[in-house]
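Lab meeting minutes (informal)
Scribe: AK
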Amino acid sequence: MNEHIQNGSNERRQDSSSVWRVLAIAFGIMAVLQMMVLCFIAGFVTHYLLTRLNERSESQRPAFEQTAPPVLQQAPQADAPASGDVRPEEGEKSAPGSEAPAEEIPEEEEEYIPRSTDTYYKKIANAIDENVPYRFHSKSYSNSDEEHGVDIIANYYEITDSKIPNIDKINEQIKKAAMYYAEEFPKNSKLAEYTDSYTAYVTAYVTYNDEDVISIVFDEYVAFPGAYFVDLLPMNIDVRNGVILDNTGILSVDDGFAADFKQRCERQNGELDVVSKSSDRQIREYLTDPSTLIAFYTPLGMEVGINYANLENSGWVTVTYKDYQKFISRS
């Protein structure tokens, strides 16, 4: 009798153990599936952002833009090229770059004023020259919708001067770029299938201006649940002709330029996988694709770089070209 009871007890324990093993396996499978779903959503968001960024670069090109931009004869003059062995001083921030996520609020830094004597361009900053016949007026937009988890802030500029050709259309394009995440972005139904919550901060900087050219750079930060995205959107304006230049037509980029870019980038920014692990051909493709190319004027000359994004992170990196004029496209 006792033996029968003991056997029955053992059988029940074995049955119970089997049940727990099955439940453990089931929970493990559920955890894996949940992780796969989260990875899929993150991958979708990244792919979606890259796709929309490329579409955005094309849609922002106004009808009055020249396909072969004029050579700006009085564009910012380059200083003597920096020595190939020159590196930032110890403790000095080298060339600009940014990566997401950027959750922590940085400590307040001393205002950076770019100067032609600087070895490298240190960070995106305003460098407005007021000795011109036109003026810049700051504009801002904000929308904080806690119920739907949306927070948007956009700061940009409006140019006032009736003598600049197509000035109204130029201002429309500036506003359109700044307000993209407030107006165009939410209209895409694909994103709404996954989430309607996001944060977008857009800040415009006038990095250079004179009587021939204006460079405006939009520094963008966009966050979704589980995904972050940062990039720079440069806009170069031919003041005399009243056109927004095609950035891919400003410089003559080939494999030789790409190889030189990689060397300059390592000297200025250190080794970055996105650059060092890319072939010369891949870098050339980045520098000729309107969705990834960064090119804008500064008091030092020109900043040239790339936006990048993958499943792990996103960011941007630029290189200072004081000798940019020898690379200007003549076509």
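Next up, CB showed the second protein from the same session:
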Amino acid sequence: MQRSKIRNSRTANLPIYMNDYKYNRYMKTLKPQDILILLKLITYKDATFVIKNISSALKISQSEISESLERCKNSGLIDSTKKKVMRLALEELLVHGIKYVFPVTPGERVRGVPTAHSVSPMKELIVYNNDDIFVWPHPKGTVRGSAITPLYRTVPEVVQSDEELHQLLAIVDCIRLGKRREVELATEELKKRLAYE
């Protein structure tokens, strides 16, 4: 005789499979680090990668990388083999959704690592004064500016040895900040970098 499963009132109306641990573990919504991981994969130019190398480069655990890739696969941002970024889908998310999904509001002036239009390639495209500098807070930062929350806590540290990733994240921060002209310029730059070769 089979034992019946006891279901609590919060999950009583869900199908049985939705109460499954594995389902709940992977069917969560995107997290900010998923964007960071996808952008890191873009820097590999579709070359084969090893999760261990991404983990080391981004200072994110291998298990978190694996879970992120599963979320990205379920969201249509990476293919079924979890090896190839779906660039058009990522572009659409970044251009039209990132400022709503992971919004940002500039904070107080702090020391940190420059981002948005305070770093290349955006600083060559946008005229700004010293009061408009944006940074990811970091104790070893070389610039003072308005604090911007990075997509993941390790970003200010890992970009110091990865210029291409730094530039991609800065472009995304321009879009997250949401000023019209800056968003247009950042979108053009992002499309160039995501263009399939």
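CB comment: The two ends are 59 Å apart (CA to CA).
No objections, moving on.
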